[in-house]
Structure formats: structure tokens, C-alpha cells
């Protein structure tokens, strides 16, 4: 008898919904695990620490790196590293997605990629003095495997949830991630700000905080690894050859077949615009707060923490909105709020802490919600058996064009010499993304992909 069914009295009770619910709870823990890398390493500690290593290597902030004919200041080297990691991701993720769709044991693949990424992230702890190269290896490959594990994780969502349940599950996972990342960040900021009382120098405190994020990522990945089930591949293209050749063959077949899913493609283009706007706002918020509004580092740190915990509630709120009004309408509401946020930033008075905190709270509300629903909405528009491959396009195209927003921000800043019009210029990304999203016929896209149409779309 199957483990998912049990005889009760005169009939057979289907326990599959209970098994699916257990898988969903296990799946949430990966968002909890990997968000520590994003917040502690990516957002707060790595950039400043790496720049200090680079400055040590060239004798101070006025020194220069001579790399491949380029003369680079030490602080710009960090942004080149991020660029390299995004380009590598854009190239590697699609064939990885094609391979993942042919793997039944996706939880093992997820864990392997996550643990490899955590290993590289942990190398940053050993980068001291002027050893910027070891830190560079840690962040480039940490980012690469972070993105690769994200593709596999997102591809599991359609396997553990029905179409009617997809928005709720995605939103809860995203909310869980913000809660986990925020909790570790609180602990790490306590360690960093109180390093003297703990007998630590500032550099060691920063390295310990980043090491804790790598350990958090690796440790909590054990939960989905142990609790998720294997899901046999379905409807994959028949391609001859070894695993690598079959993966590229699958990728080629999907690229030829993309024209059959125009709604999925339209949404991808819309997502590229509005997600780039979101990422640029987040990346520039701290600089805007310090350089344009004159807020202290303490205020900025408090705002980052507040955004993390408000985003937890925001993701759950948008999950409820999607259950009532549909994911597409809810995302459009979120994009309208993003337009208001960048407009308010244009007029925000300098030095006014309450207004800045209110703006941060507004960002938190829509940050998790729009991203969580984008993930679940896209999952409805892609065919069964190609979840990882389509999510690899979702991640790769995002990373491959992630410089559009920052380039726009930088150009406007250079022309106007002010952060206010620079951040307001990002409204174009939300408007264009929203207009493209209105062109997506949700029901048609779901039917084209061969999925069931939810009760609320």
C-alpha cells in the first residue's frame, strides 16, 4: 500500500494533501536559510569589508588596481566583482535548469548547490589583511551558487502546491525568508556594534558575522533536504547523449518552443523592468539616505532592520490580496505603490527621520509581496516538466539585465548631481513593467502552459 494512503473503515483516505502540506513547510525553510546570505553578507557587511581589503592591497583609498589594461580605484573593484558574478549566472543558469528538470532528487541538487555556495561564502572569513582575491572568489562563486540553488528551489514550488494554492505558498516562503534573514541580522549587528565589549576587533567581528551567515545557510538547508520528497520528471524532451549533452539539447528544444508560450514571455519582459526598478531602489536606498538626506549610520541600520520585518508582514498581506483579487492585480497594486515611493523620495525633506522611516515601511510592505507573487504568478504560465528551465530564464534574464536600473540611476545622478531625480527616474521601470503586465492574458497563459486555471486569477 502507498505511504500516502490509509484504509479507514470502509474506504481509503487520501493523505496526499497532508504530505503536500508537510513539504510546503519544509520548503519554507530554504527561504529562511538563504536570506541570511543576502542580508548579512550581500547587503550589510561584505561591501565595506572588501573595500577595506582592496585599499590595504594598494596602500590606501587613493591607490589603483591595474587589471587587464584598466586602472581601477579600490572601491570600484567590488562592483566589477558583482558584474562578473551576474554575467556568469546569466550564462550558467539556463543549462543548469534544463539539467534540474531531468532530476528526480531535486532536494539533493538543491542542497548540493546551497552547501557549495555556503562553502565559498565561508572563505570570506579567511580573507584578512590585503587578501582581497580570496574574498573575491568567495563572493563571486557564493553569488553564482546562490542563484543556481534559487533556480532549483523555485522550480520545486509547482511540484508541492496546486494552482489555487500557489500564491499563498510562495508568499509564506518569502515571508519566512525575511523573518530568518532579519533575525540573524539583528544578532550580527549586536555582535558588530558591541565588538569591543566582546573582545573582538572590528574586522574579526565583521568576518564572524559573515561566517555565521554561511553556516546559517548551510545548516537550515538540512531541513528541506531531509523533508522534501523526490518528484519524478515529467514531459521532458527526449534528447540523446550524456547528462550534459541532454541538458543543452533540452535547452535548445525549449528555446525553439518559447513561441508557444507568449504570455510567459510577456511576463518575463515585464518582470525584468519592474524587478530591476525594485533592486535598484534597494541598492541605492542607503546611499540616498546618507548622502542626500544626511541620516546617520545608526538610522540607516535601524531602517534596514525595520524593512526586513515589515517585509515579512507585507509578503503575507499580498498573499491574502492575491487569494481575493488574483496575483496579477495584486502585483499591479504593488507597482503603483512603488511609483508613489520613488515620487515621495523626490520631495522627502533632509534630516527628517520619521518621514524616512515611513518610506522604509512602505518599501517593506511591497518589497516581499511583489517578488513573492511574481514567482508564483510565473509558475502558472510555464509548462509542467520544465519548471527549473523556465525559472532559470527568470533568474538569468533578471541578472543579465540588472545593470539597466543602476545605469539609469548613475546617468541621472551624473547629469543632475542629485540623488533625488536619480531615484525618481526609476519610476519608468515600474510604469513600463506595469504596462507590459497588463498585456498578459492570465487565463490564456495558464491554458497555453497546460495548467489548471485557479478559481481566482
TrEMBL record:
Subcellular location(s) of the protein: Cell membrane
Topology versus the membrane: Multi-pass membrane protein
Stored InterPro entries: Atg22-like, ATG22/LtaA_families, MFS_dom, MFS_trans_sf
Pfam families for this protein: ATG22
Chief location bin: membrane
A GO-annotated cellular component: plasma membrane
Recorded GO MF terms: transmembrane transporter activity
Keywords from the named record: Membrane, Transmembrane, Transmembrane helix, Transport
Residues annotated as transmembrane: 77-97, 109-126, 132-152, 173-193, 205-226, 265-287, 299-319, 331-349, 355-378, 399-416, 422-440
SUPFAM superfamilies named in the record: MFS general substrate transporter (SSF103473)
PROSITE patterns with a match to the protein in the record: MFS
Domain Major facilitator superfamily (MFS) profile: 263-457
Protein's UniProt keywords contain Nucleotide-binding: no
PANTHER family with a match to the protein in the record: AUTOPHAGY-RELATED PROTEIN 22 (PTHR23519)
Protein name: MFS transporter
Species annotation: Nocardioides eburneiflavus
Lineage of producing organism: Bacteria, Bacillati, Actinomycetota, Actinomycetes, Propionibacteriales
Amino acid at each position: 500500500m502507498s505511504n500516502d494512503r490509509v484504509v479507514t473503515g470502509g474506504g481509503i483516505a487520501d493523505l496526499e494533501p497532508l504530505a503536500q502540506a508537510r513539504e510546503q513547510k519544509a520548503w519554507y525553510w530554504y527561504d529562511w536559510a538563504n536570506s541570511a546570505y543576502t542580508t548579512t553578507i550581500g547587503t550589510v557587511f561584505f561591501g565595506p569589508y572588501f573595500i577595506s581589503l582592496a585599499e590595504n592591497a594598494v596602500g590606501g583609498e587613493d591607490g589603483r588596481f591595474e587589471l587587464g589594461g584598466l586602472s581601477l580605484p579600490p572601491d570600484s573593484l567590488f562592483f566589477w566583482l558583482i558584474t562578473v558574478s551576474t554575467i556568469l549566472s546569466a550564462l550558467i543558469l539556463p543549462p543548469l535548469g534544463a539539467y534540474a528538470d531531468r532530476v528526480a532528487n531535486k532536494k539533493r541538487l538543491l542542497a548540493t548547490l546551497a552547501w557549495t555556495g555556503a562553502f565559498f561564502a565561508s572563505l570570506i572569513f579567511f580573507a584578512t589583511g590585503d587578501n582581497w582575491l580570496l574574498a573575491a572568489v568567495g563572493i563571486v562563486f557564493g553569488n553564482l551558487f546562490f542563484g543556481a540553488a534559487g533556480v532549483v528551489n523555485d522550480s520545486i514550488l509547482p511540484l508541492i502546491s496546486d494552482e489555487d494554492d500557489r500564491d499563498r505558498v510562495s508568499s509564506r516562503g518569502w515571508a519566512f525568508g525575511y523573518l530568518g534573514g532579519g533575525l540573524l541580522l539583528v544578532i550580527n549587528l549586536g555582535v558588530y556594534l558591541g565588538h569591543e565589549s566582546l573582545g573582538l576587533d572590528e574586522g574579526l567581528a565583521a568576518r564572524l558575522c559573515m561566517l555565521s551567515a554561511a553556516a546559517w545557510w548551510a545548516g537550515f538547508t538540512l531541513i528541506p533536504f531531509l523533508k522534501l520528497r523526490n518528484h519524478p520528471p515529467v514531459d521532458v524532451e527526449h534528447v540523446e547523449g550524456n547528462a550534459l549533452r541532454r541538458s543543452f539539447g533540452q535547452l535548445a528544444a525549449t528555446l525553439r518552443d518559447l513561441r508557444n508560450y507568449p504570455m510567459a514571455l510577456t511576463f518575463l519582459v515585464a518582470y525584468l523592468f519592474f524587478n530591476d526598478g525594485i533592486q535598484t531602489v534597494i541598492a541605492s536606498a542607503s546611499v540616498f539616505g546618507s548622502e542626500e538626506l544626511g541620516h546617520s549610520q545608526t538610522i540607516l541600520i535601524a531602517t534596514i532592520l525595520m524593512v526586513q520585518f515589515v517585509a515579512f508582514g507585507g509578503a503575507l498581506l499580498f498573499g491574502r490580496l492575491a487569494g481575493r483579487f488574483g496575483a496579477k492585480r495584486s502585483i499591479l497594486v504593488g507597482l503603483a505603490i512603488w511609483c508613489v515611493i520613488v515620487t515621495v523620495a523626490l520631495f522627502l525633506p533632509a534630516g527628517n527621520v520619521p518621514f524616512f522611516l515611513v518610506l522604509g515601511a512602505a518599501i517593506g510592505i511591497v518589497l516581499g509581496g511583489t517578488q513573492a507573487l511574481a514567482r508564483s504568478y510565473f509558475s502558472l504560465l510555464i509548462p509542467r516538466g520544465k519548471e527549473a528551465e523556465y525559472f532559470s530564464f527568470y533568474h538569468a534574464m533578471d541578472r543579465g539585465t540588472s545593470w539597466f536600473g543602476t545605469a539609469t540611476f548613475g546617468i541621472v545622478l551624473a547629469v543632475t548631481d542629485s540623488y533625488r531625480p536619480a531615484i525618481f527616474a526609476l519610476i519608468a521601470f515600474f510604469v513600463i513593467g506595469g504596462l507590459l503586465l497588463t498585456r498578459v492574458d492570465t487565463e490564456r497563459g495558464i491554458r497555453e502552459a497546460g495548467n489548471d486555471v485557479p478559481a481566482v486569477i
